[in-house]
Amino acid sequence: MDASATAAPRLSTAELLARLVSFDTTSRNSNLALIGYVRDYLDAHRIPYRISTDAAGEKANIHAIVGPQCAGGIALSGHVDTVPVDGQAWSADPFTLRRSDGRFYARGAADMKGFVSACLAAVPDIKARDLARPLHLFISYDEEVGCHGARRLLRDLDESGLKPALCVVGEPSGMQPILAHKGKLNLRVRVRGLTGHSSEPGKGVNAIQAASEAIAHVAAEARRLAREGPFEDGFDPPHTTIHVGTIQGGTILNIIPERCEFTMEWRTIPEDDATRHVERMRAFVAANIEPAMRAVNAGTGFDFEVMTTMPGLALDADHALTAIVKQLTGSNSTGKVSYGTEGGFYQAAGIPTIICGPGHIAQAHQPDEWIAQEQLDACDAFIRRLVDRVLV
What we know:
This protein is an alpha/beta fold. The chain has helices at about 5, 15-20, 30-45, 110-130, 150-160, 205-230, 275-290, 290-295, 320-330, 345-350, 375-390, and strands at about 50-55, 60-65, 75-80, 100, 105, 135-140, 165-170, 180, 185-190, 240-250, 260-270, 300-310, 315, 335, 355, 370. Strand 4 (about 100) and strand 5 form a beta hairpin.
């Protein structure tokens, strides 16, 4: 090892975590300051990397490769954007790492800067090994708002040809292997009514009431899916779910509301297809709600906009990656989760992917988000064992 490499910083996972959480990378913000810090760290260790950015150049991914600069090997993947802290009752600064009773508190500590910190902390040790195959590090943006960074990173992999053979996404799973997660489709529904005075309701079209009929259909669909399925064991709940999350409309009480908008989502088990549910909802609205609206005014009706889609993940229980991760974590079982990850995109691109990372999802997105030291220690050991097992 040359002198410059010797002088490169060797930081612990906790030290790196303190640096990463100090950057407010809430998804609405740029992540370039954090990415700049990671680039300096990788440069100090002479690790090559590629940068890919969003259209505005305000957010960036890093794809770093330790070892042979080629396709194959395995990727460790983590996002560095976080959910907001607005309105949450934090007991201290969310962007200053605080340690207490074996726990580290900060926004993103569990989801998922803890895993990214463990990956970066392992770089000097992994570089010192004589790797036969490459270790890829994926650090991405905007996972929390649609996995836009992962989509961009996959385009960059197509351009570079440097696609890994396998991938581990380090979302918080208690260091237990997760083989499957649900897919997701987010839909925005806009209702166009006809305004008027509330004393003459027959001369207008109430957009809120029309939206309410559609929302009642959503509630009925939720009950139907719980009753009829399709079902897949291992998920909680074991079926596709549907719900409405936001609604806005109206001005004052005595004006017939001209517009209303609501957003909703489906979380689908891997074998299900959310687009068929969207079409089912369109058909219900067209047959049961819009005719009465258009009898009053032909310009009224519903508009549907698919905002984001995320594929589900389903790794075969008999896949070699499953066996490797089970052995290295000492787990006798695997799991399935209802939340989504970037893993579904990687698998859809032909990269077999598993979820395994430190911390627990119950601590993510919460005020005083935390991750346990023992979880970070377990992740540190897992990364090094994985490299020795798969890449050396």
